[in-house]
Amino acid sequence: MAGDRVRDLAEFTGRWLEHQVGDRDARSPARARRLRFGGPDPRDLPTEEQGLALSALDSGRWKVEAGTSELISDGEGPAPSERLGLVSELRVRDWITAGGEVTLLGRAALRRWEESTAPG
Question: What is the pLDDT of residue 7?
Fold first, then answer.
């Protein structure tokens, strides 16, 4: 289990670094925010997978298994994906707590995602 967490963190770090290096426009507002605050922008829009996970965690259909970075089903509906790093991504953005509860920032991110996917 500890190995899974280390692997998740390493994969997330690699993707984060690729994103940082790929952002070459020094005048970009997003880049300026990251440089000033030193982390993910709290106004980031969740990906489809992150939004679905936040929604399922917030509703109680899914939960994070204690002591792991694994999502498990705790109700009806589709089962969580098995993609490594998803829980770590949600945690590093402060969208969920270490125990898997959705934070205030996570609820705001979930609202942004819901608004971006709403018809119309």
Answer: 65
Residue whose token pair is 């500890």: 2
- Between residues 25 and 54, which one has the greater pLDDT? 54
The pair of structure tokens assigned to 70 is: 């694994």
What pLDDT score does 119 carry?
A: 83
Average pLDDT of the residues of the chain? 79
Q: How far is CA 57 from the centre of its chain?
A: 12
What tokens appear for 10 in the block? 């390493």
Distance of alpha carbon 107 from alpha carbon 112, whole angstroms = 9
> Which of 62-99 are b and which e, b meaning 16 or more Cβ less than 10 Å from the residue's Cβ?
bbbeeeebbbeebeeeeebeeebbbbbbbbbbebbeee
